[in-house]
Amino acid sequence: MSAKEEKRNSDTAETPGTEEENVPGSVAKLIPVYVMGKRYEVPETLTIMKAMEYAGFKFIRGCGCRGGICGACATVYRKAGDYRLYVGLACQTVVEPNMYLAQIPFYPANRAVCNFAQLTSNPEEIFKLYPELFRCIACNLCTKACPMDVEVMDVMSALKQGNIAKAAILSFNCIQCGLCASRCMGELPQYHIAQLARRIYGSKIVPRAEHLAEAVSANSESRYDAYLDVLMKMGEEELRRVYREREMEPEIATEDWVPNDTQYL
Ligand code: SF4
Ligand code: SF4
Ligand code: FES
Q: Is the whole-model pTM more than 0.85?
């Protein structure tokens, strides 16, 4: 990140945010925030990430999806007159007056190296790779830090009890931001441990999906080659039309839903 030495000192400003954040053309009140100790005036409607960009910072790291998915923008902040340290995702958290902000580039938490193909679903494998799991003292600070509302402590507890499936399901929403590890007095790399649990669960515990195996075998039997040839010969306009008019699975579909055209099933 680098800061432009440009001071913005009007009382209001056109906000450069998206439709979700601003009515286009509207003005938003400017509020003071502090980035790495320096004061900036930024529109109150912006997320931390956009406010920092408004202030002249350029993200060359610590920014990815901008949609709360990639976990790259972990941020620590404090509010004026409040002793607490808060954490959040810069792309999701809206600024508040007198926030003191610090962007966290990355927590270099321990990630165990293993030959995943040789691992089994025996929880002992996780215990051997991450013995620090048993340093957890169940303080729950990791859960409080999580911007995705993952019950991180419960994930660690499930693993200590050898329940990989429960840990995998509970940690499904983890985006690997690392904020849990930042608050852990047991110095656990919770997100790496939970990711290993999810990988073991998906690869070695959950039964293989039969429909997926069928689709893979249909593909290797060249069942779709003739239709792919038809698509390859279409012009752009026709391709667009076919794409627009394709039959889609409804957002809420029952288990037995099938498309009207079943020739490629
Ligand atoms: S579990 Fe940890 S790494 Fe995952 S989203 Fe929550 S705080 Fe981030
Ligand atoms: S912060 Fe660390 S010690 Fe506390 S509950 Fe979470 S994993 Fe356990
Ligand atoms: S930029 Fe991806 S979660 Fe914020």
A: no
